[in-house]
Write a structure and sequence with these properties.
- It comes from Streptomyces violaceusniger (strain Tu 4113).
- Pfam families: DUF4096.
- By secondary structure, this protein is mainly α.
- It has a domain at about 30-90.
- Helix content is about 45%, strand content about 0%.
- The chain starts with a helix and ends in a 10-residue tail after the last helix.
Length: about 130
């Protein structure tokens, strides 16, 4: 990962406070863990098979940090930041933009009866 990209990403990461009385093991630096996350996502290997000798920490450490960052909204903020940077540099071709509704949650779609039938659960009530 380039220093330039890391400088953009680092302020978006949540800061964790260490406990004073029982601090435990010192956590791995975020940059190393991010490299481990990117390695797993790029190669497609399972988290548990992340090689220890690469210095990214364990696969479970990388997975937990990915989960925590996802819950903190890091990826959404990074996506918005990168889109703004690319748009400001006129590097985006908006004429080829596509809006996909599969990422939008359906609100009150369908009736309860149709929902019950589609899940294969209990049969729909007899209305006759």
């Amino acid at each position: 990962m380039s220093d330039e990209l890391w400088d953009c990403l680092e302020p978006l990461l949540p800061q964790r406070e260490r406990r004073f009385r029982y601090p435990g093991r010192k956590p791995l630096p975020d940059r190393e863990v991010l490299c481990g996350i990117l390695y797993v996502l790029h190669t497609g290997i399972q988290w548990e098979y992340l090689p220890q000798d690469l210095g990214f920490g364990s696969g479970m450490t990388c997975w937990r940090r990915l989960r925590d960052w996802n819950e903190a909204g890091v990826w959404q903020r990074l996506h918005e930041f990168l889109l703004a940077e690319l748009n400001a540099a006129s590097r985006l071709d908006w004429s080829r933009c596509v809006v996909d509704s599969s990422h939008v949650r359906a609100l009150k779609g369908g009736s309860t009866r149709a929902r019950r039938r589609s899940t294969g659960g209990e049969p729909a009530p007899n209305t006759t």
